[in-house]
Amino acid sequence: MMEADVLIIGSGAAGLTAALQLATTKKIMVLAKGSLSDGATAWAQGGIAAVLEPGDKFENHIEDTMVAGAGLNNRATVEFVIENAPEAIERLAKLGVPFNLEGNDWHLTREGGHSHRRIVHVDDATGWAVQQALEAAAKANPNIILVPDMVAIDLIMGRHQERFSTSGRIHGVYALNRQTGKVETFTARATILATGGAGRTYLYSTAPRGATGDGIAMAWRARCRISNMEFMQFHPTCLYNLEVKNFLITEAVRGEGGILTNPKTGHRYMPDYDPRAELAPRDIVARANDAEIKRDGLDYVHLDISHKPAEFVKEHFPNIYEKLIGLGIDITKEPIPVVPAQHYTCGGVLVDLDGRTDAPGLYAAGEVTQSGLHGANRLASNSLLECFVFGDACAAHIEANWDRLPPPPAIRPWDESRVTDSDEEVVIAQCWREIRQFMWNFVGIVRTTKRLERAQHRIDLLRREVEDYYSHFRVTPDLIELRNLVEVADLIIRSALSRHESRGLHFTLDYPETNEEAVDTVLVP
Ligand code: FAD
Ligand code: SIN
Predict the structure, then answer these.
(1) Residue 281 in contact with ligand 2 by CB distance below 6 A
(2) In this predicted structure, what is the pLDDT of residue 246?
(3) What confidence tens digit (pLDDT) does each residue in 133-168 have?
(4) What is the pLDDT of residues 470-505, one digit of tens each?
(5) Residues 461 and 320 in one domain
């Protein structure tokens, strides 16, 4: 059994921010299910939104966030995050993130839904620079132990104690060590979930392989409420390429003048859909791309920035330029074939402004949460920001309430006396494929009640199969993820079925109108 003061599950922007804040006084252990840089943070391209341009105001950023979120956002959360953004950027710059500058000022780029230039960035690979800076600081801190290759399975609740307790307090987590194949017990006074999103519930996603919603599923099993899971964000411009399946083309390409055209007609269609054209919020652009593709039977639409000077394009998007040149596409001379793909999980574990979940001792930050920031559709580049502000908020609350957090009791070790090694790995691979396929086809950008019900029937069947499998066989990383995918897909479908309107990212042909009152979906375990 390994014991820390605070256990953090996830080594992305949210987890490492919390770790660095707490490590001045506490012993911290950070688990990651693969390597430390495997989360979405390292993949972020565009940047981080903050009010830094002269003439811009917090009120503008708040308003843009609420407009993108279709009014479902919690205004207090939006204000909290946006007002703390400039300070979060300063902290990152002090940690050594080499943000692009213009003279002595930040170089700010523009993205859809933002009324001002507001995005600080490191070329077109901001996330990688942020992840490296956070990791370097964490590795240098003697109070932080980083534990890669440790797949969290389930939170340790009161009932796992030697003496039965019903408090529901979380004391840590059971996790599978990928190296040894053994399940280990990690305990702490406080646990922070920072496990990222659930993009891999969908066939096409820009998210990394590990985005299987583990934290959301673990919190649900630990009796925490889960909210707004129907609001899955689809990014309008994922590269269409038969070999490279999930390479994002940053929204900043449109921010810097890129236009969307129909490859069949050459027509620039976004002005037909929205007066903001290519800079409309993401849900609108993704639906427009989807509509063009479906109407004309296309494989993709075109994103074109080749009308800008070649030097400008290469200077602003060096990584995209290099990647695509390697695939035979010169973006300074020709358009990029793109399709919409799942990109961000707006819903998640309900948290308050201190990052507290429903379970005592359990906090959460980042993409795993529903904090009230994003509402029905996340505004571009607001999510890394949420990780920094809420990572910090969890740390501050734990620090301030340390004496009220009881030390963990003795915990029963993981029991595998009644399971054997799997003899049918093919079942896992098949279930993975099925879920991702029907989620894409039946719970995608445009929905109907009938399609959602079809998805529900399939998930009910798969749940029985996966539960049966889980109860008979020793856990493996794939089985742990599959069990979570089933849970999360179920939460998404149930949430989508319960919303009888179209709002933000949830668009259904059966309820095309938006209700007057904006109400969160809250699933209670
Ligand atoms: P992540 O960075 O995803 O980290 C999750 C961590 O949890 C990982 O360390 C993982 O190993 C660990 N973990 C997960 N499950 C387990 C488990 N069972 N056991 C142990 N550990 C586990 N947002 C912006 O604001 N600006 C952008 O420009 C931007 N660009 C993006 C580009 C792409 C391609 C993608 C996919 C996303 C982008 N986003 C962007 C969104 C943003 O990157 C993410 O929302 C954010 O990085 C999430 O950070 P996080 O700390 O919550 O989780
Ligand atoms: C992008 O660079 O387009 C992604 C930005 C984001 O997801 O916020």
Answers:
(1) no
(2) 86
(3) 999 999 999 999 999 999 999 999 976 554 444 578
(4) 998 899 999 999 999 999 999 999 999 999 999 999
(5) no
Q: Which pair of structure tokens corresponds to residue 139?
A: 């590795």
Maximum alpha-carbon separation in the chain? 70
pLDDT value for 132: 98
Residue 469 and residue 354 in one domain? no
Question: Based on the structure, what is the number of domains in the chain?
Answer: 3
Residue 64 sits at the vertex; the CA angle it makes with 62 and 69, to the nearest 5 degrees, is: 95
Q: Which two tokens stand for residue 319?
A: 């990584």
Name the nearest CA neighbour of 126 among 383, 362, 309: 383
Any atom of ligand 1 within 6 Å of the Cβ of 112: no
Same-domain status, 460 and 328? no
Query: Does residue 381 line the site of ligand 2, with CB under 6 A?
Result: yes
CA of 45 to the centre of ligand 2 (A): 6
| Residues 363 and 350 both lie in one domain | yes
464 catalytically annotated: no
Taking the CA of residue 343 as reference, the ligand 1 atom at the shortest distance is 36
- Out of 189, 282, 356, 451, the active site residue is 282
Query: How many A from CA of 274 to the centre of ligand 1?
Result: 30
Tell me the mean pLDDT in the region 171-176: 98
Residues 265 and 303 in one domain: yes
Query: Residue 119 sits in a domain of what CATH number?
Result: 3.50.50.60
CATH code for the domain of 294: 3.90.700.10
Q: Which among 9, 341, 358, 321 has a CA at the least distance from the CA of 155?
A: 9
Instruction: Give tens-digit pLDDT for 250-298.
Output: 999 999 999 999 999 999 999 999 999 999 988 899 999 999 998 999 9
76 and 117 together in one domain: yes
Query: What CA–CA distance (Å, rounded) separates 129 from 96?
Result: 9
Phi, psi of 134 (to 5 degrees): -65, -45
- Looking at the fold, whether 434 and 486 belong to one and the same domain comes out as yes
Domain final position from 341, 358, 386: 341
pLDDT value for 159:
66
Domain encompassing residue 285: 236-341
What pLDDT does residue 162 have? 46
User: Which of 317, 339, 337 is closest to 440 using CA atoms?
Assistant: 339
Compute, in angstroms, the gap from residue 73 CA to the centroid of ligand 1: 21
Output the CA 250–ligand 2 centroid distance in Å: 6
Residues 210 and 197 in one domain: yes
Token pair in block for residue 390? 């809420």
Atom of ligand 1 nearest to the CA of 15: 51
Task: Determine the pLDDT at residue 164.
Answer: 45
Enter the pTM of the model.
Answer: 0.96
415 belongs to a structural domain = no
